[in-house]
Amino acid sequence: MSGNFEVTDLSNIITGLYRLLDLCKDDGSNGRIDKIIISTESLKKLCNDLKPDSFKSISNIDYAKLNHAELKLIGCYGNHVLIAKLLLKNNIIGEQIYNYLTCSDSSSAGQIHEGKPILRPGIYLLKVNIELGLVIHWPEPGCYEENAPSHKKKNMINLHRYLTKLTEHQICLISESDLESFVWNAKEEEEDSDEETEGTGVEFEVMKSQEEKEDFIPYPGFKVKLPSEIKREINADNADCPLPFIIESTLYQAFVTVKKVRAKSKTNKHCKTISSVSEFHKIIEGHTLLIAREMQIDDLKKLIKFGFAKLENDLLDPLNEALAAERTALEKRKENERNIISEDGKIIENMFWNKLRERYSAFEAFISTNKTNSSYMQIDGITESQNETDLKRIYKKYPNIKNKINDSLKITSENWIELKKLFEFITQIINTQVVEGSEIVQDKNDRDEAIKELYNLLVDQQIDFYKQATKYFEEKKKKKDATNDSLWSKFKKFFTFDNSQIETIISSVETKLKKKTDSQFIHDLHSYKFENVDEITKNHITSRFLDAYQEWRNEIFYPNMKKCIPKYSEQTKEINSRLEEESKTYQKQIKDSKFPRICEMIEKQYSDGPKFKIERAQDVSNDGGLYITYYLEEIQPEQLQYTIYNTSLDQNDILSLRQDGLHVSNPAVNMSHHKNWFSFLINPQTYEIRKISLFENNKYFIALWNINQKWLEIYSETLKRTLNNPIQLEESIYPKPKILHPEEQCLITVNEPKGMIGIYQTKKGVLDVYVIDENQQFYKRAGGVQICAWYGNIIPDIKFLFFIKDKEEICFVQTDGQARIFNLVTNQFLPATADFPVNASDIVCTPDGSCIVAFVEENVSGENPTDENILHMSNEQDNESVMSISDTASNSDTVDSTNEPSGTHDLPVKRAYIYFCSGFGRPASKVINLPTIISTLEFNQFSCMENQIHLTTFDIHAGIFQSLIIRITHEKTQYSFQQKFNKRSLGKVKAIKNFLNFSQDMELEGNDTSFMHDIKKGENLVIMGEKRVVLKVYSDKKLKVSGTFQCMIGIDSWMEFRIEPQTKLNGYINAYKLMFEKYPIDNIIDPDQNRTLNLQIALDLKDNEKISNYENKFQDYVDDMFEELKRSTNKPANSIKRFGLSCLSFSDFDLEDLNDQLKLPDPGALSVDGIAQNISFGWYEGIFKYFGDRLVKVVSSMGEQSCGKSYMLNHLIGTTFDGSAMRCTEGVWMSLAITKKCVYVALDFEGLKSLERSPQEDTFLTLFNTVISNLILFKNQFAVNRDMSTMFQRFQDGATLLNDEKIFQAKLCIIIKDVPKQDRDGIVSEFSLRFRTMVMQEGENNFITKMYPGGLNINPWPMFNNSEWFKSLRDIKKMLD
């Protein structure tokens, strides 16, 4: 792979490499901090490469699909050069990428050459093939060294923890030079060191740190390469736009960029009551009138009637005529609907009668023929044939009509039903119960007589056939006598049933009738052969059924039919509503078609100027006026957008600055945090920027001169706004500014430490001083001070005005250079007068108030570039200095006469004249030539960074914000308390001039050095806090180091250095010990997750026969290391008993054959499911969906700062929360531990009672924790001190904020740390007494009852690192279960 890289992230161009975890910087309350986060985009690419469409978003990951893509994951860490070499020899990378990776600074954050491709520290997955993945820990430089900075060591431990969570088998790559720095017997070395040292204490001494005279010494400072978006804003070629500038601020390193925002139109809504037509036309005049097409027609008519009455007929007549025509058409549609419904009724009635005639044709034919009076419902007008088209229309229009007809044709009259039953009863008796008699004529006649008597039941008036039959039989039985055998004897002779059989017959009859339709019954009735019944009786029987049929026909069928026939009167409401809605639609269409024409005719009246759009018009009651709502277009002119950018420091830089006054920090501009930048817009035709300053706590001060109003507007507020768009300062939504009325040519100065603003009116000679207090209140400190009295009653021509910082004094500098200081306490000028350079481009005071600095650009003769009056830097220097004072004359920016041709031409030199305030009035104490980074005097500003003073400047062409560290010493002796070092002068060094390539190792030349005697290969050279390994010592005056000293780039100056011994590299193996000291060894909540780790050490040796020897040495070392770990921590450590270790040759190490070469048990494939369990933070929505069937338990940890909350939670749940003796947890952090049955949600809360949080915030965190947790571990100190009593009282106060007790479910477990066994009963008694008192005072409102229904547990915890400490975690586990 060759060519120039346009990207700087090598992970994007290495085939098959995916970043899993990224080590990055983020803003914290105490500066920028290191954070390990999931690399979302890279992991998304990995998932979708494994299984397409498996990763759609963080909350939508198809884990089930990904679980089918199993990879065997093997960990890899160690020497970064060997990791790169491994990738090179397996053809994964080329030579060019290898060179980038092997550069010692390839992953060093904040100290890289811009544009150089790097691989950031973190965890990466290299997909070797479809079955194997190599999980690589790419390290920070020097993180495995014994004396590595604490933050680097912490990051290494955390990343190694993730490496071992993701893989069971790790490979450590170690070079031969690494082995030279490996101490095999730590115990012996400790014993040796004990003989040489006085113990573990650190020797300190009180030093006279500033015994020398007053001095002002510059050193190379920070260099911030600005992001590309800021570079575009500071484009120096944009001549039409003001240049960026650095903000005047004592405490912050901030700057302002300016860019143009094109002119654009802006529409604002207005409402106005208009009382007259003339007023209406007056406000519209000069505008382009527009009528909102969404306006209601009634509003439009009101508008026309009020403002365009003369055009009313022309405008509205076509519309009114069209609407009137629609109303006429509506009435016609209603009439048409009436006719249609009437016709539908006739057709439906015809359908009913035809169906009746069709179904009961026998009876209907008789009725039609005889036309009996009893059948008063006639169907003469009904046609038998019906139009098929009409039928289809009716069925479609009335979908239920067919069912209604069928339901109406069911004969439901009681007489009819009972007659049917009786008929079936009689016929069943005759058919089933008649006993065949003899052929004797008498017997036959008797049988016929009996049957005839049965048929006579059908003509009896008794309808209930059961009662009728019973009555009939009883009567026949009573009538028998001796002279006559009676009819009963005939019945008994021919019928075999008795009364008890009637029920059975009735049941049979009802079953039969349920299966027979009325039409089938009538058909059977007409075809039935009545045995031995004369025609008269037969006709009587038929007539009886016909009468019952006609009764149903007239009294039931006909009324039901009439109900089913649609009537217009019944549908009037629905029809009218429907037709009215249709008419409204037609009217709207008419209005929509006519509306634009009306609007266009009105709009023609006014068609020139900004847009004036009327949205609504309403009558004003009893006034005759018109209330209109309108939008007025206002042309917003071209504006300037000012953006304030503030830098932030790494937390480790802050600590280093407090310890080392010359530490070079690496501030950064974090564009992702709104609190680090703020934008506002101004109209350059209206406003001029007069002053921008930053006060403490990010409070800003902006002074704008209003060109039109001729006044000064002061804006002051905290930089806390997070609006997406720049703020328009003069808009009403923004706090109103403070208005001042000085003259236009006034001078403004700011004293941020005192919160003071000074305004001097140059023409009047008047000074006003204001103060901004902590509440942003603006009030006058001193007003109307006439300074003429001190200048012979003549108004002086003041050119510069500035505060003596941190004092209540203001310095006035006249155009002739004469300067005086005014004291605001005494309201008097100090007696001394100073003379500053007349040609000074700027004069300012340093942030500590000790010096006044005048910046001057002067021409210096080419023959004599130095002046005898210029005082260069002295030779005195401390052990950490970078640029000696004498070096200034030899600096590359100072003209060297020996390199110039002879002549007398002048060369421009930028200089700083230094005046100490303690000797105000004396000549300049010192004049220095400014280095080349000060390319112009326009951008210079002083500021403080912790205890350092910086002179900040811009290189707008290169896009660099940079500084010089200024060390100011005073004549009085100062003392400092510092660590004692045995040091001697080693000479000075500087980079060899031909060094140009930032990626190669650097060669240094020495001055007064003895490299051959003082330095050995492998030792470390330290310059300005940067440490580099000595690779080769050529001579006493020349050596070579690994990588580049950033502080030397562009600086041709001699620098002091110190030597540190060769670094121990036991960290490659000790990483496991450090990890297990910080995090649990065995899993408490799920022992099944305990895994045996295996370490394979790949050694890059010249002689591979030594491999076996080294394997034995490493095995002994690891055994001793783990024994010491178990002894010192007393942790449960069953997992490390089976720790596997072996060695192999790096030269034989091949990724493709990795499984065969390792010769270890198959580590098994880890699915994405497994990965999710181990790096699941930040992905919880998708994780919870995937494990949604498992029980969720929430356990949280709270308490004071630095009491071991994170440590306990890690060892209980197995999480990886970071922890340290300093405050490191901010806010609330969440992680998961997933077992076969449960999902444990662990919440790590920041410490309470911190300086960064208010009591209200502590109370909120406590309530939030209580609401969402099942178990709360509240860690407390050994006793109930005042702070904890206050905290428990806040618990009680919080109980009153939320009254819904249903939301609380937690159990509170108070962990009292480090309790000796003999004190446990006493400490429990002390705590319980405190709670008992609180409960008695609060009664039913006590916080324990209201907030912790799960109960309260007081747990005196064993001493730290005692074996019982870890055993007690099992009790907490039981409590959680």
TrEMBL record:
Superkingdom of the source species: Eukaryota
Outline the segment boundaries, as ranges, of region: Disordered: 881-903
- Check the record and name the InterPro entries matching this protein: P-loop_NTPase (IPR027417)
Recorded hits in SUPFAM superfamilies, A to Z, give: P-loop containing nucleoside triphosphate hydrolases
Residue ranges annotated as compositionally biased, kind Polar residues, are 881-902
Q: Entry's PANTHER family?
A: URG4-RELATED, VWFA DOMAIN-CONTAINING PROTEIN
Its protein name is: VWFA domain-containing protein
Q: Which organism is it from?
A: Gigaspora margarita
